Request: fold
Amino acid sequence: MRIFRLLVFMLVVQVPIPARACDLALVLAVDVSGSVDVEEYRTQMEGLAAALQDGVVAEALVRAQARVALIQWSGSGRQELTLSWRHASDFQALDQLAADIAAAPRPWRNYATGIGEALQLAIEQFQTVPGCRRRVIDVSGDGPSNEGVEPTAIRGALSAAGITVNALAIEESEPDLTAYFFEQVIHGAGAFVQTAAGFEDYPQAIRKKLLREVAQQNAGLSSFHPAIP
Reply:
């Protein structure tokens, strides 16, 4: 019997355990244009980091075995892939991602707003994660696109790649920004706009946005956590 168990054990350890499938590839696209001052930039990055560590959001990302990337964007020609795909394999990996986002340096200041080019750069990133079931771009900003290709011109490429675009409108000085994002930026089935009245509301707004697009839409955690707002 002991020999039999030993043989079974040897067979088991030699059989590779298949990795869980990626259920979500998520690009976080953060506005660093000239309308965002130093304090507002830190509010965005630290708020985003905290939202990723929210218990329900983190659980959903890990259960989805999500891939997450970070883009910082400004005007035409100034779009940067700050963090390439990170695998949300466990909570420790998410903590490291959050720490890297919070500490990320700002690449530009005092430039215009090029949302269309930010979306183009985001689309390119999905070529390296072909196995993920859902593809989502999470774009946040405090103003309409005023330079470069228009966001609506990207919709054909988004549809062809099966990408959903959700938006967070920071209405610090643009009271109609939610309507603009709704009409010009978001794309795909179930796409939505989350509104923040100002940068001080960004941390709470990005948490609600991630809860909606990650926890409720992706991992099905709303059935386990009916109190998700």
Notes: Residues 1-18, 219-229 have pLDDT under 50 and may be disordered. The beta strands are 24-31, 67-73, 79-87, 134-141, 163-170, 193-196. The longest strand covers residues 79-87.
